[in-house]
Amino acid sequence: MVPQDYGFFIDPQRCIGCRSCVGACAECGTHRGRSMIHLDEMDRFDSPQTVPTVCMHCEDPICAQVCPSDAIKRSEDGVVHAAQKPRCIGCQNCELSCPFGVPIVFSGLEQMLKCDLCYDRTSEGHKPMCATVCPSQALLFVRKDEVANLRHNKPLRDFLIGSVRVKTKNAIMVPDPDTPLHLDAALLIDGGL
Amino acid sequence: MRVFDELDLEARPLLGAALATLALCGAVALGSRGGRWLDPALLGYLLATLFACFGVTYRYFSWIERPATRMYFRHTLRTLFSPRAIKALPRMALLTLDQIVLQRFIEKRSIKRWGAHALLAWGCLLGFAVTIPLVFGWVRFTSEGLDATRYQAWVLGFPAGSFPLDSFIAFCSFHVLDLAAVMVIAGCVLSLIRRKQDEGDSATQRFDLDLLPLVLLIAVSMTGLLLTASEKWLQGRNFATLSFLHELTVILLLLGLPFGKLFHVVQRPAQVGVTIYKAEGEREGRLPCKGCGAPFIRANQRRDLEALWAVLELDGARHSASVHHLDLCPRCKRRLVAKAQGERLHGAFDPFATVPVYAEPISDPISMKS
Fold it and tell me: Does A57 lie at the interface with B, CB-CB under 8 angstroms?
């Protein structure tokens, strides 16, 4: 059971692209040898900005809703686990439907793997691997009451895609957490939609 | 109907399960010549098998009623009942050999996992292949007339050859279940060792779902082997007690079949249908991401997922009339979160306007414990 007074706070703006998290993630026992963290370049031509992405652990995970083999489960502590190995049939519904682009389906293995908050560590009272090694604390795993002393920004766990609300266990840091973060594709597409 | 409401049973799966169980009862009645060839000593097994049939079929029908499962199930049925079936069937046969019989995808996950699973799966299937026809009265052995040195095999009530008791065929017939038991025990022990050594499995496994089936399978196999040992080397000592224990463990296993991990045996063939679906999608081509332009999603899956999202009441996840959230590739979805956060911080994303990064000291960056 992951302690409920701890939270994962993500601040992509702090990422320095050192890839420590990528290396550390592969050490996690639940997917040993495979890194489940995504480190993307924001816009390689214009900027050195990199973006680390871990699973946000949705309250009502879309990946689980679209899974035909009912292989994705959310435990009582709010952690959404990788697809159960006996059940996953590698259809990629989860990979294509996740609002945050997190799961990875390994074809050949017919297996979806994803960040599971380093369950082997966090369930025993340790930090996730990525948060342990992140030098700029773009990935921060601390007690929830501690984060106010460490950041000007505040944790937000509420996202809006069109009219669909997605609430998560992990938080992203913003100045005004009372309004959901609107994920609007117009931000990505030059010239708007 | 109030009973169904209280039990929270769904009508269609209930009907499907009832029909399947009735069909099985009919097959047992026919195969055992109206029950004449049923072995009274195996009646407990028969009742547990009928319950397992009802439970597994109920859960199967409930499972394929889930919107996401229905999407693939219908596609597979459409393929099988269309002219494409002639082309698809040989491919399905090859996929069945690769994915269901040889289970090579498990080998790619881990050779240790595959070894344990192969022993377990083939041991169980061998065991069921021998015991189910005996329990249903479809196969039976008797002495050949008054000759006590020969055994007569009967299949569906018809004579199917005889053999001497000291022949190789007799040895194989009498000990095939011992072989299955040894395979199952070896597979279970290897699985337990792997589970003990694997930090990930140790953290996520549950006793009722992951360990209990292995413990039950070991109990079934051990009591089965002890029956042989009692008969061979102990002059039948404690045979009745062992026989009761064996029956008890098998019945517990069968009763748990619809509820536990072993249900994945009937789910796994869906993988063949999904592989065919993906191959058809590849032929149709991949659609480009509306964020970066890179092709990423198969056209058939894009269509079906949009319909599925509508059923799941997620249809509002649109960025405009022409851009659905499904039109963005996973990488663009990840970038979008950072863009949105950047806009919230600075009004518009500007990578050079980031706030200075200070590594604030935290009491212990390694462990929360100390």
Answer: no
